[in-house]
Amino acid sequence: MSDDGHQFQAELSAAHKAVGEHRRLSERLGVVQSTLAEARDEFAQATEVLVAETAEVRKLESLSLTRIWAALRGKRADQLTARRSEQDAAKARVAAARAVVDTWERELSAARAGLEGLGDVDTWHAAALAAKETWAIQVGAHGAGELRQLSKQTDALRLELTELREVAGAIDHARTALTAALHHLDRSGSLAVDERRARAWPHSNSFILSDGRKADEMDQAVGLMRKAGASLHVLSRQMDGLGYERFEQLMAHEFIGTFDFLFDNRFNNELFMNRLEDTLDRVHGALGAVEQAHQSTDLRIVELGALLADLDQRRERLLMSM
After folding, report:
1. Largest CA distance in the chain
2. Nearest-angstrom CA–CA distance, 168 and 296
3. For residue range 216-261, what is the model confidence (pLDDT) as tens digits?
4. pLDDT tens per residue, range 180-203
5. Cα angle 128, 133, 137; round to 5
6. Is the pTM of this model over 0.70?
7. What superkingdom heads the lineage (predicted)?
8. Can you say whether the dihedral through the CA atoms of 96, 101, 104, 105 is positive or negative?
9. Are 26 and 77 in contact (CB under 8 A)?
10. What is the DSSP string of 109-176?
11. What does DSSP assign to residue 250?
């Protein structure tokens, strides 16, 4: 190995060692924080007991008819001695608990100082790996071909992961819009039922204008469904681009249409309710498809994370061995 190679290797070894030390101190910090929390709980409980015992001693030391009578009978001194003994024990428990807290607080400070002293070891380690990799490829070191292959695989997986996260964003937008649309559709349906009941009253007209609230609910529902449709268009294209099977319910042009609901009267109320039920069915269907896409996307994101972690480990082992 050339002098440059030895230099890169020394830098990588130092960074690798620092990463290990950072991991060890981080684990130590977690243990210390947990133990310190328990020690502080013990100190708080011991302090409560001491406060209670001190209050009892003060009661016995104070003069009252009951205690004067107890003193005359010779019992007060015994009671006071017993209480003071319990108070002393409580003081000792508090002191011991305080000492334990102090010890673990010092451990906490030491662990934090150690981590701060190490600095950003992840960035250092990543830079050392990249420098060693660049050198190895440039000089055609043993394993350079494998490094190139690992790099190509990593880039491909990272690109897919980025695209899948965009898919996940489209899924979240569609699901949010569809769920909100369901609320407005259900509300408009309830209002339509109320209108139908109002017409059943004696002497009611055969024609009444729809409640303005229902029209507002439908306007909001339609706006949300069109917003969901835009997300579904994006989602369908992205899934095609990734080579995944497209869900039929994600075809936005089959889901989103023009919803021109009529003014209600006793003759077209049934038409309105039928169209509303059909729309509800389509929204529920789209939500079901979105949920399937969510599950499959999340699963693939987890798989990609594991594959990338494996590639990173293989790359690091190869560079450390060169």
Report:
1. 103
2. 10
3. 777 777 777 777 777 777 777 666 655 555 444 444 444 444 444 4
4. 888 877 777 777 777 666 655 554
5. 155
6. no
7. Bacteria
8. negative
9. no
10. HHHHHHHHHH--HHHHHHHHHHHHHHHHHHHT-TTHHHHHHHHHHHHHHHHHHHHHHHHHHHHHHHHH
11. G
